[in-house]
Amino acid sequence: MQDLTIDLFGGPSPQLADVAVLKTTGLITTVATIGRENLAYLLTVSNAGPHIAEGAWLVDRLPPTGTAVFASSDQGAYDATTQRVKAQLGNMGVGESLDVHVAVTPIGGPMITNWAEVGSAVIDPLPANNTSHVVSVAIPALDTDRDGIPDWWTQDQFGRPTNALPNDDEDHDLITTLNEYRMLSSPHQANLPFRIEEIGCVHGGLVTFETKVGRTYEVQFKSNLQATAWWPLGVRGGTDARVSYYDPSEDPLRFYRVIIRVP
Question: Cα–Cα distance between 244 and 200 in angstroms, integer?
Fold first, then answer.
């Protein structure tokens, strides 16, 4: 009779973490008027365990450039080339959740589908909840008299939906009513136009200016005012807040300008 020897090798169980994402929109921003409102998304990322989700990450995939031109987030960085917001969330404990807010400036539509995906460095036992999406609607602003100024802005500023007199200058600040609309400044108060508020030097250049929701702002530069071309530094979306754009160049002399884009 011969003996049979069987060697059994054991090891630690694999680390598992069920990370999930739920994307929602505020009721007000499910439908946005192009040039007037942003689409606001709330992405809730959670870890149901049973272990810590090490190196958790989130990617929010925006629609093509024809429907959205800029996104901003309180957690992630926006990549204009890939139209994605990427966020490194670090380690998430079991039962932990966190919110990531993303604002999108629409320039087209009508239907905008926005997908989000999450993951981590460990095995996910339930990958079906790693993605979530929301379909929103972006509608063009009505311009009944076709003067280049939408009815909603004319109504807000003059109490009537049409006949804004686009070439008029009611407040005598040398800015026409049409350009007041483009900057979303008041046509009734002089000395309140858009302007670059500050240019600082912190191992490069720092350009600071106020922004408005519904507009995008392209920062450009040149080193010689006699040169014809202006070179792009980047695009920022309006948030109704003061923003700064950092230029890492250490050129001794640079001039900046900001182009306001109207969807």
Answer: 10
- The bridge status of strand 39-50 relative to strand 17-25 is antiparallel
**Distance separating alpha carbons of residues 84 and 55, to the nearest angstrom:** 19
* pLDDT string in tens for the chain (263-residue length): 556 655 555 555 678 888 888 877 654 456 778 878 788 888 889 999 899 999 999 998 887 655 666 666 666 677 766 778 888 888 989 999 888 888 888 877 778 888 889 999 998 999 999 999 888 888 888 899 999 999 999 999 999 988 889 999 998 888 899 999 988 888 988 866 677 777 776 667 788 888 888 888 888 999 888 889 999 887 777 878 888 888 888 788 888 899 888 87
Same domain, 128 and 25: yes
Task: List strands edge to edge, sheet with 17-25.
Answer: 17-25, 39-50, 97-106, 68-73
DSSP state of 155: H
- pTM here? 0.70
95 plus 174 within the same structural domain: no
Helix (H) or strand (E) holding 179: helix 177-183
186 and 83 in a common domain:
no
Residues 121 and 71 in one domain: yes
Contacts of 27 (CB under 8 A, 6+ apart): none
Structure token digits, residue 60: 């929010």
Amino acid at 141: A
